[in-house]
Design a protein that fits this description.
The structure is a homodimer of 209-residue chains. Chain A contains 9 helices and no strands. Chain A is mainly alpha-helical and 209 residues long. The longest helix of chain A is centred in the middle third of the chain and has 27 residues. Chain A is elongated and about 65 Å long. Chain A starts with 14 loop residues before the first helix and ends in a 13-residue tail after the last helix. Chain B binds a DNA duplex (30 and 30 nucleotides) through helix 3.
Chain lengths: 209, 209
DNA sequence: CTTTGACAACCGAGCGCTCGGTCAGTAGCG
DNA sequence: CGCTACTGACCGAGCGCTCGGTTGTCAAAG
């Protein structure tokens, strides 16, 4: 049942999966258009023509990356939201779910976020549709917290959602898993900043902790 | 003394300036590598070969855009910081200066932020150096507010700075000058979220304003 | 007022190269 | 034998860039 059909002699992970992961990495680092099928096949250890046994085109590869990215983000957030009831707690959990997904698969999500524009036609429409559906979940969660009076109503749901996604999405461009900040720390940072802000309340001495 | 040497018959703005602005727009919308010198020259209304009278290469064009972008951001922030004394007021002013610059020249700054990776060698090093020098200004401003006890010390200066830039930088990807939110509104949104957070303090009724 | 020459700005043809993609064929396994 | 996985030789298109030449403008010379 385990590996080893055809000519494959490499590690157990199927070539198709390795292709997706390696392509995502290359697209994130160099960009979609600057990445070549030659480099990619070399990194995989196969010939360029063999790529087309697994995917139908370079565009198809990007499309699959985007779909996989959005599926994982949405799954992570939905899992984080399950069994959480309070409106503020739900915002909190949503942020954690989003950040966890982001930091676990940086290559995938960074590629989706910045290279989506390279897609065209139906593939683009479909991915944009998926993204919009995900953002609707975020928006609804924010809206419910506003209606419950726990999130400010000074700004519209739209505005607050944008501020939230701004804070969360840029992370993958600079985050390094080797850095001093682990995912937990990032999670705490963003949740605190978005919810409480960075200002120390007046009349408080330093180091509130 | 005013315009009109050579074959130029078009609007008063010099071709070199129009080139930079149009290239920045094209790079932002399509990406650097997906943009062709043919499209660009067509948009400018000149022949492809004529581009090389104004710039030495496509890379050179990107380099100039990045330099111009960072110069403008830094100038805008330094102007906003001039004559502002209080540590918290300085953070506030810095955010306004950054956002104002961002939203005024979206094409330039978005290109710099996402296409910097397409540069190589000395040009890349130089732009990265400029960016680091700018971020040092931001970091110092944050650090001074922390030392004064007005910004939280629960997170390091590095962490707070990243959260701040996260919030501010992603904006240019979705901001539209035709939308309902003007620059002033965005400015207020981000300043409020970063400093006070989005949560309504316990024991407060809705609509604090 | 005309001539001349230097120069800025631009043109058109085209070159060398790399790219994504094709296709007939083949090795290894069940 | 058939299927999966892969190969190697090969396109045609489009890319960035070059180069010799041309055109319009201004300043000084005659």
């Amino acid at each position: 049942m385990t590996g080893g059909r055809g000519r494959r002699k490499r590690a157990d992970e199927p070539t198709a999966d390795r292709l997706l992961a390696l392509a995502a990495r290359q697209f994130r680092v160099k960009g979609f258009h600057a990445s070549t099928t030659r480099e990619l096949s070399a990194a995989l250890g196969i010939e360029k023509s063999s790529l087309y046994y697994h995917v139908s085109s370079k565009d198809d590869l990007l499309y699959r990356i985007c779909v996989e990215s959005l599926n994982r983000i949405q799954a992570s957030v939905e899992e984080a939201l399950a069994d959480v009831d309070g409106p503020l707690e739900r915002v909190d959990a949503m942020m954690s779910g989003h950040i966890a997904a982001m930091l676990e698969d940086r290559d995938l999500h960074a590629t989706m976020l910045v290279e989506l524009r390279a897609l065209a036609g139906e593939q683009r429409d479909e991915v944009v549709g998926m993204r919009d559906r995900y953002e609707a979940i975020v928006r609804d969660t924010v809206a419910q917290a506003q209606e419950a009076g726990v999130l400010t109503a000074v700004f519209t749901t739209h505005e607050l959602t944008l501020a939230l996604l701004n804070l969360l999405n840029w992370t993958i461009f600079w985050y390094s898993p080797d850095g001093v900040d682990g995912a937990d720390r990032i999670d705490e940072l963003f949740r605190t900043v978005f919810l409480q802000g960075a200002v120390v309340p007046a009349g408080t001495t330093r180091e509130p902790a």
